[in-house]
Amino acid sequence: MNRVIVSLKNIGKILWIKNNEPENWNKINVFLPPNDYVIYKLTDQIVIDHTSAGNLGGIYDIKTHSWSYELMDRMGIPHSMMPKRILEPQEIAGYLTEEAANELGLMTDTPVCAGCIDCLASMLATGALNAGQHVAIIGTSINWGVIHNEIPSNIDYISMPYVKEPETMFYTYGGASTAGALPRWFRDLIVPYLDRNGVSEKTNYKLLDELAKDMKPGSDGLTMKTLSCILT
Known about the structure:
By secondary structure, the protein is α+β, with helices and mostly antiparallel strands. The protein has 3 domains: 1-116, ATPase, nucleotide binding domain (Nucleotidyltransferase, domain 5, 2-Layer Sandwich), CATH 3.30.420; 118-180, no CATH class; 182-217, no CATH class. The chain contains 9 helices and 14 strands. The strands form 6 sheets. The protein has a 4-stranded antiparallel beta sheet with strand order 9-10-12-11, with helices on one face. A two-stranded parallel sheet has the order 1-2. Strands 3-6 form a two-stranded parallel sheet. A hairpin with a 4-residue loop joins β4 and β5. The longest helix is centred in the first third of the chain and has 10 residues, at 11-20. It is globular. Mean pLDDT is 88; it is low at 228-232.
């Protein structure tokens, strides 16, 4: 059977396609986050784990650990566009197909677990397993989240199931899209060249580190603000 599967990781992008590309929307069978699309290519199974489902946004009901079909109806998203199987990260999603096994040099029917979203994999890798622990995960962007055992009462908080025990533990976080990208922005646009001992040299990260090492904690009150743009 020919399927049209689109890999996206949040409800905003799904609705953008619905509102802006109706011809493509009518061709789509199912949406899968990137990690679950990889699982599909490896096993031919359409599944999603609880953390990835929670990361999509409001169409996942964090209280019932299932899809909010009522909200999907209000948004005009067919139920069939979301995977029926929602698994815990450690559960087996499927087994390597013969084609995938041959390409990877592995045994056919090697089990493939459902896994989780990237930031929670990083949380787990640090050893964060208990309520009250929190980790800042910094790359191009930053996620800083805390683990807890109760669903936050404030619906404005961004929360999802936690990777360890997704039905009883939760992860609430805030983030910024310009964390690790800021040094590059600063280097390229603010100080592309620096004068040292009367010689102008191209700025690099090592040089910036040398200049920053003597700064006191708090950087003398220096703050940074970012602006987010929403395209409509």
